[in-house]
Amino acid sequence: MALIPPRTLKGFRDLLPAQALRRARIVRTVEDCFRRHGYAPIDTPVLEYAEILKGKGGGDTDKELFEFTDKGGRAVALRFDLTVPLARFVAEHQGELAFPFRRYHVGLAFRGERPQRGRAREFLQCDADLIGAEGPEADAEVLALMAGVYAALAAALDTGPVTLRVNDRRVLTGLLEALGHPGAPGPVLRALDKRDKQGPEAVRDELAAAGLDPARAADLLAAAEPAPTPTATLARLGAAVGQSAVGRAGLENLARILELLAAAEVPPDRVALDPGIARGLDYYTGMVVEARLERLPEIGSVGSGGRYDDLAALYTRTRLPGVGCSIGVTRLMDALEALESTAGAPAPRAGTADALVAHAGPAASPRAFRFAARLRAEGFAVEVYPEPRKHAQQMRYADRLGIAFVFTPDADGSFHGKRLADGATRTVVDAADAAAWMRDTAALGAARAPAAPGSEATP
Amino acid sequence: MALIPPRTLKGFRDLLPAQALRRARIVRTVEDCFRRHGYAPIDTPVLEYAEILKGKGGGDTDKELFEFTDKGGRAVALRFDLTVPLARFVAEHQGELAFPFRRYHVGLAFRGERPQRGRAREFLQCDADLIGAEGPEADAEVLALMAGVYAALAAALDTGPVTLRVNDRRVLTGLLEALGHPGAPGPVLRALDKRDKQGPEAVRDELAAAGLDPARAADLLAAAEPAPTPTATLARLGAAVGQSAVGRAGLENLARILELLAAAEVPPDRVALDPGIARGLDYYTGMVVEARLERLPEIGSVGSGGRYDDLAALYTRTRLPGVGCSIGVTRLMDALEALESTAGAPAPRAGTADALVAHAGPAASPRAFRFAARLRAEGFAVEVYPEPRKHAQQMRYADRLGIAFVFTPDADGSFHGKRLADGATRTVVDAADAAAWMRDTAALGAARAPAAPGSEATP
Questions:
Q1: In Å, how far are A136, A138, A425 from A327, measured between CA atoms?
Q2: Nearest to A24 among B41, B138, B374 (CB)
């Protein structure tokens, strides 16, 4: 029989155990933080009526949609983000929800764009949004949440620091008003948003195309450059927006947000005012934010968000202002891999077990099963080698998966223990004895020691 | 502007926060148990080349496939389970994996079947498989894993006991050999598998259609009835399979599995031998299992599994025997909802916060933010009401989300605390003071006390 070639679609990828373990750890850390801030999960289908999704994302999302007709003749599509489904969800279930509504959502989204690093066609989104609240407290809440998430990720996964680069769309509108720019702000915002990716030349060209003459473009770019401190940036922007009411409202909002973040003890160097942050998406109306990984800023933003004032307007006449953020899990994974390969760091573990109980012949298997069960009850992750194989092969297996301890049933009823990191051996009489040794090792911080029981579950 | 009706596709559904919180808790409990047994996660795309998926599931899976042509002209489809993608994954990555390979996978699958209770068109699968190992130890390992999962779910979610009903396909083959049945065993196995769902009449009709005369059908059904104890069942089956070598191999395997499960201290009443369990899927070759929720057996199996001896043969010439299980998360959710509605139990919580800090005017907001941040650092989930609203409205909000404590900034710098369960009040000077009160409440086991810090993350 001819074999079917085992392969995945272009732009889609498998996660091997080490990668999936890391992603699960990132997601769990993010989710725990979302919950600690009062956000609860929801879920929505990955497949929606096409009319729900089309014409919503701006830019290329329609072109990139995976759409088809299902066997019932319905025009359907895979969602391209979690924000449009949130709008549909809130409109559909508003009577069942308590407002202000804090929800988070971890789910897949799909875009048929050209695959490149960090731009898979299937990707995992981790979003949190606060719906039905306006004002600086709501904006600051989401930024404090983001700061909490990145602090937890730095602690759990050694990502290093992440800076939130914050702006308010209204400040940019105010700058354009003060400059006497007659056109719509949209093209200018999109031009500014490309500053980091495409450099000042490209931005100047785009600003010219958006109708800004060279002198005004230069003024705008000068005003949009951050000053050394947030206070200095606010002062400079205050002068630049002049009497523009919308510009002044944006600046007041930013000043108040900074005050609230300081009160919440978010470290000041983790928050920067950056008047050049515009965010390409059309639906943002107030605060906007991008998260920069300081160890690898060129990877692009590892999270973003902002305020949108009426996202659900397509589906309901109830006005539902919101503010939210998205944590870039795939981007963070890519960044960690890039940093590790630069540093020549060892590959992350592909296994979960703290201990392997070796197979020492069928007669010993019942004892091996009991020992493993009791060691699990002590809080450790344990596997039993399932088949009679040479002991050396079983040891190589343990080594390859980074399992810290191997216990082999002895003829006298005890177990011969080996710690793989340093080759130390010990005879243990039962699982409690083995657990004590493993805990001692963990307490000593020995290389490849098992995690303390339960520690995996908390960031 | 005309509104787009906010709606989901037939057979697809949203999860509201209370439902999503419960599902997340089930999944986390299952995942933690999988890891405690040495299983590591993988991930694969929900979209695959159609040729990978078609003709693999047996029965109706081809008809029920969501398939389409993507914008690059490729024939693609949404996966209908996680087992076929596992086979493709193992064939594609075998050089990068350590065998025996233990993997778990939590992911969405899609089937366009007629929607009914527990049969959504999009559903979450939680599978664990051990690839590259044969013999009773491997079979017993997966059963011990399942028993561990259901014990953890009973403890974390009050599902009540689940019984594993175990059989070996070879025993049924042996029974047919002993009866002198000339045909293929497949149709007989599928007939037997309908015993619980469609009753003995339907099974007798199907057995007749499969070529079994009434006397033989009656003998088979009598032999397939479980005896009062596993030992008695094994003895009766031993007599019934007679000299059939394949039948005796199946019985030896079952006897050895029972011995290993007893050694692993799986409670004996959580495992039953049931020679009528056949599992409809064609790819099982040895041990098969179905999990029955004792409080609501009529909901159908809440998990299943078995041994398949060469699943990846379509994609690789390497022989890869395996054994695995699938935990029925959606079925368990349905069962819990049905049991609660019968018992008139209160709806589960839709919120995650232990405490709400009330909005007491803009001047108090910085203090509220600091208090909330410090209470989170003490391990509690805390939200700040984001807008100036009447105090009564804020209290109703807390009540609706099941938030146990509300703290309101006082003019003198302290906070007025209220415990909603009993209306108790206390003035606290800071977050540490509030945390002490909340911990005391939790220790007293008061109604609606907040979870102890970190407790949510462990089953």
A1: 21, 18, 45
A2: B41
Angle between helices B365-377 and A245-263 (to 10 degrees): 40
- The size of the A-B interface in CB pairs under 8 A is 321
Distances (CA, A) of A202 to A169, A217, A242, B282: 21, 12, 28, 60
CA-based nearest residue in chain B for residue A113: B71
Domain B355-457: which topology?
Rossmann fold (3.40.50)
Domain layout of chain B by residue ranges: 17-343, 355-457
Hey, are the CB atoms on A373 and B40 less than 8 Å from each other?
Answer: no
Q: For the complex shown, is ipTM > 0.85?
A: yes
* Two structure tokens written together for B300: 């159908």
Contacts of A108 in chain B (CB under 8 A): 46, 108
Rounded CA-CA distance A238/A253 in Å is 12
**CATH number assigned to the domain covering B17-343:** 3.30.930.10
Residue-level length of chain A: 459
User: What are the chain A neighbours of B314 within 8 Å (beta carbons)?
Assistant: 1, 3-4
Q: Please give, rounded to a whole number of angstroms, the shortest distance from the CA of B56 to a CA of chain A.
A: 12
pTM over 0.90: yes
Q: Provide the residue-wise pLDDT of chain B in tens; the chain has 459 residues.
A: 578 889 999 899 999 999 999 999 999 999 999 999 999 999 999 999 999 998 776 667 788 899 999 988 999 999 999 999 999 999 999 999 999 999 999 999 999 876 555 468 999 999 999 999 999 999 999 999 999 999 999 999 999 999 999 999 999 999 999 988 877 777 887 787 777 777 778 888 888 888 888 888 888 888 888 888 999 999 999 999 999 999 999 999 999 999 999 999 999 999 999 988 887 666 789 999 999 999 999 999 999 999 998 878 888 888 899 999 999 999 999 999 999 988 888 888 899 999 999 999 999 999 999 999 999 999 999 999 999 999 999 999 999 999 999 999 999 999 999 999 999 999 999 999 999 999 999 887 644 445 544 444 332
